Write the C-alpha cells for this entry.
Amino acid sequence: MPDMNRTVPRRRYRPLDRLLIELDHGARTLLAKPVAARDYPAEAAGDEALSPNERRLASRLMRVNHAGEVSAQALYRGHAAVARSDTARDRMLAAADEEQDHLAWCARRLEELGGRRSRLDGLWYAGSFAIGALAGIGGDRYGLGFVAETEKQVERHLDRHLARLPTEDVRSRQILETMQADEIRHGRSATQAGARTLPRPVKRAMAWVSRVMTGTAFWI
C-alpha cells in the first residue's frame, strides 16, 4: 500500500518542455472543441424563438464573449509561464481551468445560435499571452493586480452585454450571469492574494485594448 503521507515532488519542466506544453494548449484552445468540467448553465432553460435579427445580435455578442475567453486562457497561461512562485503559477493555472468552462459554454451557445467564432482568435490568443507574460515579469503582485483589473473590466463588459441581449434569450443570459459571478470571484481572489493597484495609464491602455478586441470580434 502506498504511503499517503509521502510528499510527491513537483515536476520541473525544461524551457523547451514548457514551450511545447503552451503550444499544445494554444492549438487545442483554437482548434479543438472545448470541454467544460461544470454543467452547462443554460441546460434547463427553454430555447425561446428568436427573430432573425435577435438571433444575429445574440450570436455576435456571444462571439465577442467567446473571443474574450480565448484571451483569458492566454492571459492566465502567459502569466503562469513567467510566475516567480509555484503558488502564483498554480493560482493562474487554476483560474485558466475555470475559464475553460466559460470557453466551452460560449462555444456551445454559439453553435446553438448558428454563429461562428472570431476569425481573429489566433491573434487574440497570441497577443493576450504576451500581455499576460509581460504582466507576470513585473512580479507576482503586479501580475495579480493585472488579473484583478482585468476581471473588473470584464464584469463591466458583461453588464453591457446583459443589457443588450434580447429579452427572450434566456439561455445566453444564464451563461453570462454565471460567467460574471466567476469573474467577480477571480478578481476578489487576486485582491486578497496581495494584488497591487495598477497605475492609471496602464488601466486606460487595458481598457483601450479591450475595446479594440470586443469591437472587432463583433464583426469579424
About this structure: Confidence is low (pLDDT under 50) at residues 1-9.
